[in-house]
Amino acid sequence: MTLHDFRYPAAILALIICYFFGDTYFISLLVIIALHSMAAIGLSLLSGYAGQISLGHAAFYGIGAYTSALIALHIGITPWITIPMSAVIAGIVAWAVGPIMFRLKGHHLAMATLAFGIIVHVALVEMRGITGGPNGMGGIPPLSFFGTPLLFDEDIFPLVWGVVIVMILLSENLIRSPHGFTLRAVGAREHVVPTLGSDTNKSKCLVLIISAVFAAIAGAIYGHYIGYLSPGPFSTTFSVKLLVMVAIGGFSRIWGVVLGVIFVTFLSEWLKPFGNVELLFYGALLIFTMIYCPNGLLSQLGVVASNAARNLRQRTPS
Question: How far apart are CA 308 and CA 303, in angstroms?
Fold first, then answer.
């Protein structure tokens, strides 16, 4: 039995302890961490394994949130159905824009994804008759379980973390599959992918669709959890924040990404009194991580701590 075999039971045990012994504020933070983890896991598949940097991932988060909320509000369908519907629509959008964006590479691709994110955010602001514009949209029905609305953080906590664990399982299975091998080849040596009998652009589009679906599910649950939507949370700032979470946790480390989300979320709480300096700080942290810690900031800190402990043992006389 390896260390990896204990990750799921250890994570579930930690969540159970937090659920029963954490206060209301701590539980609410863990709910937000779960929602952000869903989007960050998808972004890790796209950017970490396939090597395609996205600066507009908040767009899919917003598409999921508004699509599910609008369908539930105006048609009256239960959120349990509108959430999968919003994921399908986000996947269709990814399928439509993927072949266009993946004609580009490197910083050109990054700029294209940034432009896509800006377009979606502007549309959410300007389509006032549908989205409510800057004033937002309220009255979004909550999720319910056997007729009981999930109104409180303690109610929705098991759901969101259950979805996160399922997404981690699906992602790890994907990475270990033959398509996962192709995915890693796209990120490492894109030019050799045709020799494996795979189409590079199709592989990129497929992982973009999966990533978009994950983000849309997170956004849809967020909308029904909060009960109110405005365009603010779906701006470029959130896209950069997601990328920072993935970079800190390690681009190609699914469990590390969740740790990165936890780190950035608590860091955000600490930075709140400083106002708009948050984005500046994230930008600097992202640059530092990508230059000096390519395997992730948290992973690098672990290596440093391990080396320091080894040196201390060597210097300590027996």
Answer: 9
CB atoms within 10 A of CB 227: 14
- Residue located via tokens 């799921």: 8
First to last CA, the chain: 32
List, in order, residues 6 or more apart from 5 with CB less than 8 Å away.
none
The residue type found at 262 is I
Assess contact for 265 and 222: CB atoms under 8 A.
no
CB crowding 275-294: b at 16 or more within 10 Å, else e: eeebeeebeebbeebeeebe
Give tens-digit pLDDT for 210-261.
999 999 999 999 999 999 999 988 988 899 889 888 888 877 788 888 988 9
Per the CB < 8 A criterion, the answer to whether 91 and 67 are in contact is no
Nearest to 242 by CA among 61, 99, 6, 73: 61
Predicted model pTM: 0.89
DSSP conformational letter for 195 = G
Residue partners of 109: CB distance under 8 A and separation at least 6: 52, 53, 101, 102
Tokens linked to 71: 């369908």
Hey, what domains does the chain have and what are their CATH numbers? 3-315 (1.10.3470)
- DSSP for 48-71 reads IIS----S-THHHHHHHHHHHHHH
Angle (CA) 287 306 303, round 5°? 25
